[in-house]
Structures are given as C-alpha cells and as structure tokens.
Specification:
alpha+beta, Membrane-bound Lytic Murein Transglycosylase D, Chain A, Barwin-like endoglucanases, 3 domains, three-stranded antiparallel beta sheet
Length: about 325
C-alpha cells in the first residue's frame, strides 16, 4: 500500500481495493442500465430505500408472486421482508415492491392464439351444357341473345343470315361457331332474311311443306320398336337419332309453345320430332326430364301445342327424334 500526499494531507492508497470499487461501480451501472432500458417496460419504476433497490411492479392478469419475484432474481421470502403485511396472493392491478439485485430473467413472450381458420368447403362443379341453338322468347332482342351466350351481335347476324335485328318469337338462332360451320357445310343455313321457327319442319333452306297422310290406327305400345343411334359429326358434335313412342303431356297448357320432356337430352336442347305415320315433323325445346313412370318405349313427351302440330290420331304415336349435343 502506498501513500499519496495532497495539500499536506496523507491519503492511503490500496490498488486492490481501488480495483474492486471500480468493478463494483461498473457492474452496478450496467445492471441499472439494463434495468432502465429493458425492464421499465414491465414495471412502474424503481425505488431506493436504505441503500437497497426495489422494483415497483404492477401485477397483470394471470401472474403469480412466484413468477414475478423469480423474474427479478428475488425470492418470496425476500418479498415478504420488503413488504411486511402483504400476503403471497397478489391481485391484478396491485403495485408491489420487489428487491432488485441487478438480475433480470427474460420472460416468455405472451401467447397469442392463432386466428381461427376455416377450411373452405369445395363447391361441387356444376355441369354446364353449351347450347348450339336458341329459341327466341317473346320480346327478346338480338342484343339480349348475344349477351346470354357471350357472343357478338355481328356473329349472330352472320351465322343466321339476318338482315334485321328484329327477332320473332319462336325463331331459331345458331349461337355457336362450330354449329355454324357444320350447318354451312351441310347446306342447312337459313336463306338470307329467312326466319326459321321451331314449328318449321326443317331448319335449312327448305320451307315447311308436308304431305298429309290418312290418320293412323291407335298405336299398340307392345308392338312398338325402339332404337338409338349416335354418330359424331365433322365439327365434333354428337348426333343422336331415336325411334319409339311420343306421348302427349296430358295437362292444360296455355303457353302454346313447342316443348318436350326427354330422358337424357339437356334442358334447352332443340329436338326434331317426326310422326312416323304421316311424316309431319316439328322442332321442340326440351324443358325437363322424362319421368321414369309409364312405358319404357316412350322416348319423348310433348306439350299439347307441339303434339297437335304432328296431326296425331291418338295420345301416343310412333316417332323418330333427332338432336345434337356437344
């Protein structure tokens, strides 16, 4: 140990004691800095009493005394000594005094439950049928038809040889490019300016001309023969030809439309129905499924107006039907 003389006073200097004092101050500074920077977020503040440092802590929900004192390197016994009269049960919002020794234990981050997720239920794909022709409804214009099938009015005019945008109720229009090409190759396109309706015998250039034959005898269902033939057209469509019985839908019908029920043709399909007894034929629009009741030899049921157009001799006739589907 050496002695230093300052202004006639002698001060004893011990290097080991000086080093120990410097280290203690440095550690205290670091600890307090750590506390001030990091722990003030979790505490109300700090307080010094009788040379000791205490953390003033405000209790939050779901916290216990043990977890709080452990966080600051203290113990429950030291807490009791610093807070005489307080029990070990702390309440939310209560401010307590915790002995601080320069030790801070990082607490686990608060658990935030993940946002509930719902697995979307897949929507079953809906079956869509691409129509190749359309029957004009009362009051329907060219723009409405073009919008319905997502085609242009110019294409509608071209595909159907239209000379005016005015349409007639029951008029048949080609609404598909491939069907137009097929009809063009086969010579079935209407003549320029010609209006083809569902009650017409042909959808091509020929007008409706039929030779009426004598009324046939009532049909015996047991003697009727049924057949089905399908073929593929050059444009990729499937053509179906069926023979069997056609029946009247025996209900009151004030619509006067040419409608039909069929087992497999999609709703909206145009079907040509020919009375095998007299050669009379019409085009009808399929509006629903044929019920599974009755004779299995019945291939189509027709609305009263459509059935009447075929000049039947009974409520059931031998018929041949043909239609095309994509």
């Amino acid at each position: 140990m050496s002695k230093i003389k300052l202004n006639s006073s002698v001060i004893s200097y011990n290097p080991k004691s000086a080093l120990k004092t410097a280290l203690t101050c440095a550690l205290s500074t670091v600890a307090l800095s750590s506390f001030s920077n990091g722990m003030m977020k979790d505490s109300v503040g700090i307080k010094k009493e009788a040379g000791k440092t205490f953390v003033l802590f405000k209790v939050e929900p779901k916290q216990t005394l043990f977890s709080i004192v452990k966080r600051y390197g203290s113990s429950v016994a030291e807490f009791k000594a610093a807070n005489p009269g307080l029990s070990e049960s702390v309440n939310v919002g209560q401010t307590i005094k915790i002995p601080y020794k320069g030790i801070v234990v990082a607490s686990a981050p608060k658990y935030v439950p993940p946002a509930p997720t719902t697995t979307p239920v897949p929507t079953p794909p809906t079956e869509t049928v691409k129509m190749v022709s359309h029957v004009v409804e009362s009051g329907q214009g060219l723009y409405a038809v073009a919008t319905k099938y997502k085609i242009t009015m110019a294409d509608l005019r071209k595909w159907n040889n239209l000379t005016t945008d005015a349409l007639a109720s029951g008029q048949v229009l080609i609404v598909d490019a491939r069907e137009y090409e097929r009809a063009k190759k086969s010579g079935e396109l209407p003549a320029k300016g010609e209006v083809v309706k569902v009650e017409d015998t042909n959808m091509g250039n020929n007008s409706t001309t039929t030779t009426q034959k004598p009324a046939a005898e009532p049909v015996d269902a047991s003697e009727a023969k049924t057949s089905t033939e399908t073929s593929k057209t050059s444009s990729g469509y499937r053509k179906t030809v069926e023979t069997g019985l056609a029946e009247l839908i025996d209900v009151e019908d004030k619509s006067g439309k040419y409608l039909g029920l069929h087992r497999s043709a999609p709703a909206g399909t145009l079907v040509n129905v020919k009375n095998s007894s007299n050669g009379q034929s019409i085009w009808v629009k399929i509006v629903g499924k044929l019920p599974d009741i009755g004779s299995d030899k019945v291939i189509i049921k027709l609305s009263p107006r459509a059935f009447e157009k075929l000049n039947p001799s009974d409520k059931r006739i031998r018929a041949e039907i043909s239609y095309m589907t994509p």
